[in-house]
Amino acid sequence: MRKAVELFTTAFLLGIATIGVAQTIPTLKKITAFDLPGPGGKRFDYLTIDEDDHYLISAHLAADQTYVIDLRTNRVVAVVTNTPGAEGVEYVSELKKFYTSNAHDDTIGVVDLKQMKVIKKLKTESKPDGSTYAAPFHKLYVSDERGKAEAIVDVQKDEIAGTLRFDSETGMPQYDPVARKVYVNLQDQNVSAIIAPATDKVVGRYSVGHCKGNHGMALDPEHHRAFLACEENNLMAVFDLDKHAAIAFLPVADGPDVIKFDPGLGRIYVACYSGAISVFHQDDPDHYRKVEDFPVQHAVHSLAVDSKTHRVYTPEQEQDGKPVARMVVYEPVTGP
């Protein structure tokens, strides 16, 4: 408790963050839910949105399969098998492909969306997890979490082009299209590393301050900010990408994992395993406030945000302790 007070006092003195929660109206409203092929009770992981085809792509990690869902109808149009332990999933628009990080066989799966099947698998280090795509460089970056490495995939050849090794487990990477850099969390060291995609050299490493176990990450490229989910001390950190320093720390519900930013609403969502989505608002690039811990089912630790409709998608593996396989869709509530 004393540690938390110290963190909040630091943020207050910096004039950066307000943490009072005066929200009385929920920030999200459930509009629908639909069953997924399952089986129920099995852990899900990352989701991504293919805006070209209006698809939601959802990795069902413990079921060893991945779903392609039509966002216009909320129907599963394909179940992609041969993605054992799929964790990360990343869409590459110009190739009509997506790539899965398969933790159960330590491979990166190449999925052709026209055929709706895996067409190639690339061997990589231990436990591939989050991934990001640097489109101008035609490179996919995959964090091999337990392998303490970052695999670099040439998507034009579908080959491993290189591997960067670190002395820390690697968390979520993100490509910044403004700075044209890749940021990757070194979660054992509470450090953010910067990769230059032109050379695939590490060009910087910076402390993320009070953020412990910086696994999840989302970016606001326009304002040069990164948002970090701090797994070990239940915080959301705001990191200034120009100053290379954390400028705010706000409390989240227990068990933060995937974090997403909706620039249209200025909202940050953190999916927390304990059964909440912590919701924050960006008043301006230097000022943030927590709005609420929106209650969801236990073990909901991943989400996706549609930047056009602002809808939030979360997969559920249980409902009141009973096993399910379900996708829930929320609309944002922005006023009375």
Provide a compact summary of the structure:
This protein is mainly β and 336 residues long. It has one helix at residues 2-14, and strands at residues 17-18, 28-35, 47-50, 55-60, 65-70, 75-80, 86-92, 97-102, 107-112, 117-123, 128-134, 139-144, 149-154, 159-165, 170-176, 181-186, 191-196, 201-207, 214-220, 225-230, 235-240, 245-251, 256-262, 267-272, 276-284, 287-295, 304-305, 312-319, 322-332.
What does this structure look like?
It is a single chain. With 336 residues, this protein is mainly beta. Helices cover 4% and strands 56% of the residues. It is built from one helix and 29 strands. The strands form seven sheets. Strands 1-26-25-24-23 form a five-stranded mixed β-sheet. Strands 2-29-28-27 form a four-stranded antiparallel β-sheet, with no helix packed on it. Strands 3-4-5-6 form a four-stranded antiparallel β-sheet, with no helix packed on it. Strand 27 (304-305) and strand 28 (312-319) form a beta hairpin. The longest helix is centred in the N-terminal third of the chain and has 13 residues, at 2-14. The chain is globular. The two termini are 34 Å apart.
